[in-house]
Amino acid sequence: MKADKPKYSTFQNMVWSLKCALQYHKPIIAIIAAYILVTVAYQTADLFFAPQILACLEERASLGKLLRTILLFTLIEGVSLGLMRYMHEVQNLRFRVVNRRLHEKVIEKQCTTSYSNMLSSQTVHHRETAENTVNNNRWGPSEIYLMLATLGSTLFSLISAVSLMTYLSLPIALMSLLSAAVILITHQMTEMWYFKRRGDIGKLRGRISYIARAAQSVAAAKDIRIFSLSYWLSKVHLTATDAYKESMGQYKSRQFRDDALGSFMSLLSHLFSYAYIIGLILHGKLSVSQFVLFFNAVHFFTNWIWRFINTLLRMKRHCLDISALREFLEMDEPFHLGEGEPIPQKATYELRLENVFYRYPGAEDDILKSINLTIRAGEKLALVGLNGAGKSTLVKLLSGLIDPTLGRVLLDGRDIRNFNRTKYYELFSAVFQDYSIPDFTIAENISMRLPDETDRGKVEACLRIAGLEEKLSKLPKGIDTPVGRELYEDGTLFSGGECQRLLLARALYKDAPILLLDEPTAALDPLAEHEMYMKYSTMSEGKTSLFISHRLASTRFCDRIVLLDGGIISEQGTHESLIAQGGKYKELFDVQSRYYREGVEF
After folding, report:
1. pTM summary value
2. Which of 72, 276, 311, 516 sits a CA distance of 20 to 30 A from 586?
């Protein structure tokens, strides 16, 4: 139940929000200042309006003076109120500019931060908080600006009210300040209670959101129906919701208790003040206009102190999320992104793993152990092994998505840690197991660029080579057809095999000097897989290439085969030499070939 202390204080986050305003939309500062001035003018006029009218009547002032007084205060209140409402609408529009710009920063950070950062649960939490903070116009810096305007105007009015009460009666001022102190302390204690539990409450909220997304996911729709998961998902969602409601119920109960105590203290303050004022009237020490002024000051002070405290506490809660937003945007990068040594421009490269160990964050054992492997320039290397042997991890190391726990990854003999990692990624055309095909057009999915940056002729050529020409001919919009139906009603759906052909076309389009393929044909039948690998064999001519496959016969075209077993390289050589050795590779190959000989697909 212990919460991590935020990296930045409330004050620091307020200052940071104002710096964002200066950076992204400077008029915000002027709008806040103007709103404070207009609001203070309205509240001051409201405080003195009735007492001044009564003072005119007590002085038996002329009708002209009375009318001028009424007109003056009416004009001040009317103009101020109109400006307040207008500026409130302006605020809502102007303040959101910063949120939108920061939302762009969050998306950019998500897409560019080092892949290893995304493996941290703390990073995931900060990322979700950051996205929620800037994706909601009633949250984040835009809300901070509104609260700063409210705090500024309320603080000026409170100072005026306290000064007035102190001038007229010190006991009333002291009693009002005592009441305010009790209200502030009790509410602060409740916020500290919430702060200590906000991590657990946030996890429950995240679980509820995740289950809701899973239930709505198109990818999970088949499993939900086939395995009757609706009841299970509903129960898990209900359990998380009940736990969330219980925690928030305790929080709301404490808030209700604080509000009740605050109301009681306000009542005591009012009773004391009214009794004191009535005593002054009975002793002839107070006029009717002064009584009304006293009454207004006490009443307005109570309302303003409630507004000030509630706004201040809301500010502290919002600043916790601002702190998480900042921590995400300022997250340390283990790689050289946008900087580092330039990469030599060549047609092909050598990759080498030198005594490499790797352990995932939080794991007890290394997934890879003392790996020494060289993929020579232009070589076609096949990597085989059972599930969990570390093949995909090795691909991530070679492509620079993660760095070894120990050891080095070398490109032409130079440690890749020294290179500009963003430029290093440009050397690779890769197809991963957990691939991504977003709901954009076919052309955009192949080029991974905007329409005006896409070579349409090249896209069509790559699709033909990948074997999707027939599919494309049936689509009215051709390569402009959207993929998927979450964003577009007329989107097309690809089968698993067609998706893998689409990925082949994407790799062809990039035409990078190094090719990494992690199970690129898992959804294909053996004949289609053989055809696909022949295409990969052709496109990999002259390139440094790494192929991963469970079907050992598919990789016979490679120059060398490496067997990974238990995180170590246990065997390597050509297909023929490995069969001749009679080791683990031959054992796996014999098992697979036996299934095919018996007419059963493995």
Report:
1. 0.72
2. 516
Q: What are phi and psi of 561, to 5 degrees?
A: -120, 135
Residues in CB range of 539: below 8 A, 6 or more apart: 465, 507, 508, 515
DSSP 522: T
Exposure pattern of 528-561 as b/e (b: 16+ CB <10 Å)? ebbebbeebeebbeebbbbbbbbbbbbbebbebb
347 contacts: CB under 8 Å, gap ≥ 6: 513, 542
Query: Where is the domain boundary, 299, 329, 359?
Result: 329
Name the phi and psi angles at 432, rounded to 5.
-100, 165
Cα–Cα separations (whole angstroms), residue 562 to 371, 391, 521: 11, 10, 19
Give backbone dihedrals phi and psi of 361, rounded to 5 degrees, phi first: -55, 125
| 411 DSSP β-pair partners | 351, 414
pLDDT at 296: 78
In this structure, the number of other CB atoms found within 10 A of the CB of residue 158 comes to 20
Q: What is the dihedral of CA 77, 78, 80, 81, to 10 degrees?
A: 100
List, in sequence order, every beta strand (DSSP E) within 466-533: 514-518
Instruction: Dump the DSSP string for 387-435.
Output: TTSSHHHHHHHHTTSS--SEEEEEETTEEGGGB-HHHHHTTEEEE-SS-
DSSP code per residue over 535-596: HHHHHTTTSEEEEE-S-GGGGTTSSEEEEEETTEEEEEE-HHHHHHHTSHHHHHHHHHHHHH
Q: What is the pLDDT of residue 522?
A: 66
Q: What is the pLDDT of residue 398?
A: 94
Q: What would the DSSP string read from start to end of 130-160?
A: HHHHHH-TTSHHHHHHHHHHHHHHHHHHHHH
Report CA-CA distances (Å) from 537 to 396, 453, 534: 21, 28, 5
Domain of 396, CATH number, reads 3.40.50.300
Give the count of beta carbons closer than 10 Å to the beta carbon of residue 449.
13
In a domain, 315, yes or no: yes
Q: Are residues 432 and 455 in the same domain?
A: no
Pairing of strands 428-431, 351-358: unpaired
The dihedral formed by the CA atoms of 343, 349, 355 and 361, expressed in degrees to the nearest 10: 60
Contact at 8 Å (CB) between 397 and 403? yes
- Residue 327: pLDDT band (50, 70, 90) is confident
- Domain encompassing residue 35: 10-329
Report yes or no on 19 lying in a domain.
yes
Please say if the pLDDT value at position 146 is more than 70.
yes
Mean pLDDT of 456-463: 92
Let me know whether 87 and 232 are in one domain: yes
In a domain, 500, yes or no: no
In this structure, which amino acid lies at residue 377?
Answer: A
Answer yes or no: do 430 and 446 share one domain.
Answer: no
